[in-house]
Amino acid sequence: MASSLSMVRAAAIVCFLLFIISLLIIGYLCPDNVCSLTNWSFSESRYKLWTRYSLRHIPNHIGKSLMYMESKGNEFESIESIRSMRTTHRIVNPSKKLNTMSFDQIVKDPNFMFDIKGDDVMVFLHMQKTGGTSFGRHLVRDLDLEAPCQCKKGKKICKCIRPNSSSRLWLFSRYTTGWKCGLHADWTELVNCVDSVMNQSERTKVSDRHYFFITLLREPVSRFLSEFRHIQRGATWKNSLHLCGGRPPAPEEIQPCYTGDDWSNVSLQEFISCPYNLAINRQTRMLADLTLVGCYNHSIMSEHQRNTILLASAKENLKRMAFFGLCEQQKVSQYLFESTFKLYFLQPFIQLNETHSSLAQDELDKSMLDKIKWLNHLDIELYQYAQKLLNERLNLMKAADPNFNYNFNHLGLSKKSEAMVNRSQFISDDPDELSPEMRLIRKVEQLKKKRLSDKKAQQTLLMQHSP
């Protein structure tokens, strides 16, 4: 009798295990729109805002805890409320791996100076079409340093070596290391990559580096239109990695907006209509910690919840940046950089009031501009926050600078006499030696002349055919 009961019990256990295994297999293989098993979840009553990880994504997150988030009325009060959740129920913040220095930490130390001879490293997060190319060139060509960066004609990479070293770098940017963390690597990629790349580059492991993240932002509509014009001319950035959570996005998470090699000659309507267009709210996405929202998997939470977290994270990471500047405020940005790091540029930054995007914006009707603003509402709110934060930092530095008026009005001249600043170097006849600002000025002037010529030709044609 006892043996028969044990056999029945064993058979029941085997049947139960087979049932569970079959459910898992069906859940893995069956399409989402057919089987509800693929979206398994934990108790919604316990977690008001809960994540739904498809079984097919679980192998990519083995060893990592799933992320659960709670909110009040489905609204997040701040990014701090997200980070304060139980650590066993969220993805670990990757930035904790790095010894980063924020602006607030810097200003608390009245004797702070960027230790270019020690272990301080500047990390430039370069977002597309924000003026980063010009700023990146300023960093490697125009800083007044004991050991200036070594830039050879015709070479994009410069050697920015510490004064007391033959190989150790103080700057991590496209002009010093190239795109070692990926083409236009975002915050999520950089914080997981930069330290290992620095160790490989210097062939030694340094545990006490201090990382200073810096970046530039731009008015969102202008930036979006500038990217549109750049894509229209054949740019793609299709080699960007978009690594997050230890893997690149799945094919269904970021789908191409075009077929063929590029998206040349795309219309603006086509450009704004693609739901996978990464130009939309690019600055918010690139500054946010994407692991907080499941990377590029949009199925784990509502779009509203995802946007709320992304914006809060981007604002927090921007606030923790050692420095950020605004494309529209070159003078303020230069002063803040110099005041923060005690490193000085030999040239004043150039403020461009007209660009390709500003000319394009003048030709758009209100309905199209409203659509672009609506699409980029996260970037617009982030930019408004950045303007306020930049002004706060300027007032703080201004109060601490007894010679503010002189220093602010002599940027690029404090370490180099005005007579030595020869503007002709910006207007060289050699296109390779032109600064990005002057190349853009020339292109805009050529475009304006062409438009004026076309307008005159149309007027002449109308006059010839008028009765």
TrEMBL record:
Presence of keyword Coiled coil: no
Keyword set includes Glycoprotein: yes
Pfam families (alphabetical): Sulfotransfer_2
Enzyme class: transferase
Transmembrane parts of this sequence: 7-29
Localization in the cell: Membrane
Membrane topology: Single-pass type II membrane protein
Example GO molecular function: heparan sulfate 6-sulfotransferase activity
Catalytic activity: alpha-D-glucosaminyl-[heparan sulfate](n) + 3'-phosphoadenylyl sulfate = 6-sulfo-alpha-D-glucosaminyl-[heparan sulfate](n) + adenosine 3',5'-bisphosphate + H(+)
Annotated Gene Ontology cellular component terms: membrane
EC number per UniProt: 2.8.2.-
Keyword line: Glycoprotein, Membrane, Signal-anchor, Transferase, Transmembrane, Transmembrane helix
Family of this protein: Belongs to the sulfotransferase 6 family.
PANTHER family, sorted: HEPARAN SULFATE 6-O-SULFOTRANSFERASE 3, HEPARAN-SULFATE 6-O-SULFOTRANSFERASE
Function: 6-O-sulfation enzyme which catalyzes the transfer of sulfate from 3'-phosphoadenosine 5'-phosphosulfate (PAPS) to position 6 of the N-sulfoglucosamine residue (GlcNS) of heparan sulfate.
Name assigned to this protein: Heparan-sulfate 6-O-sulfotransferase
Gene: 107360792
